[in-house]
Design brief:
single chain; mainly beta; 4-stranded antiparallel β-sheet
Length: 332
């Protein structure tokens, strides 16, 4: 059983009336305005909840202060932020609501086949480098990725851990059940969380580098019954019956890897859990720096958490057309 109990997310104290296609990150500024990213619309926006206004920041292009693609924003010290424009392999630096510098591709130190799992305020970042199986690799082989911490100038790299990256499907075109793999998250103050799926736990790597292995969480393991298969199809609006998915796992995975992990100002992580037949609500496990599961937050609506500010939690609510509406809530 969980220590404490589930806390419902408080109703929003602000909600934007304009909807978006796919909000992937938010960054609260000191004055309460909020930057957000929508990669499908290729848009970086600035939200003022007081006036319900949204203005665009930067524009598409290859020039200074422009971007080719939009990725999650990461908070740096004070009111600055950074975004990795991976396709043009460069960084965009923000001061409050303005793009003030573009670090060109030759200075961008991202290894190939890597993606950023977090950027800290100490001049470092963590990336996941996926190891790709060659043509000699067997279909269905379990693959892994390495989490590496580097400095933004690229001078040093530190190994943080290996992650189970998921089973390669026998038939890549077939419909799949839950994606199942470990996740990593790099915090603002330079810690790396390795979120393990089997058994479900969180290992922490502090900036000093000594890994703290977490204790497995005492959460029930849910077998994949025909009822669970039907609930999966229904919750995700999939057409057809469960037989359309050839490769069901034996148990419902704990972590929902399709939604972002949110860092609380206190350094705790909010980890999205998979919905099941008995629990259709969107739940988040709150895990502290000792790797302890301290409580759960439950969302009362169709949506997900997207970020946090000093005293606020931000969620995205979906309407019947799956439009994204940004909401601000008091901390639960």
């Amino acid at each position: 059983a969980l220590p404490g109990q589930a806390t419902p997310l408080a109703p929003p104290n602000a909600r934007l009336s304009e909807g978006f296609t796919a909000i992937t990150s938010v960054r609260e500024l000191k004055d309460g305005r909020v930057l957000f990213t929508d990669p499908r619309e290729r848009r970086i926006g600035l939200v003022d909840f007081k006036t319900n206004q949204v203005t665009s920041v930067g524009r598409k292009g290859n020039g200074p202060g422009e971007f080719v693609n939009v990725a999650p924003l990461h908070a740096l010290a004070r009111d600055s932020s950074i975004m990795v424009d991976a396709f043009s392999r460069r960084w965009l630096l923000f001061a409050a609501d303005r793009i003030v510098a573009t670090v060109p591709p030759d200075e961008s130190i991202l290894p190939s086949r890597s993606f950023v799992v977090g950027i800290d305020t100490l001049g470092g970042l963590a990336v996941a480098v996926t190891s790709v199986l060659g043509s000699g690799g067997l279909a269905g082989t379990i693959d892994s990725s390495e989490i590496v911490r580097l400095t933004r100038r690229g001078s040093t790299t530190e190994h943080q851990g290996w992650m189970f990256a998921g089973k390669i499907p026998d038939n890549p075109k077939a419909m799949r059940a839950w994606p199942v793999y470990d996740r990593a998250f790099h915090t603002k103050d330079g810690w790396t969380a390795l979120i393990r799926i089997d058994p479900y736990r969180v290992d922490w790597v502090p900036p000093s580098g000594a890994v703290k292995i977490g204790k497995p969480f005492n959460v029930p393991s849910v077998p994949v019954t025909s009822r669970e298969k039907l609930a999966f199809m229904e919750l995700r609006g999939r057409l057809g019956g469960p037989e359309g998915i050839p490769d069901w796992p034996s148990h419902v995975p704990a972590i929902d890897v399709t939604y972002p992990i949110v860092e609380a100002p206190s350094g705790e992580l909010l980890i999205p859990r998979v919905q099941s037949a008995d629990i259709a609500a969107r739940r988040y496990d709150v895990v502290d720096r000792q790797g302890r599961l301290v409580r759960q937050i439950v969302l009362p609506m169709r949506g997900y958490l997207i970020g946090s500010g000093k005293k606020s939690l931000y969620s995205v609510a979906l309407d019947q057309d799956d439009l994204n509406f940004l909401q601000r809530h008091p901390w639960p």
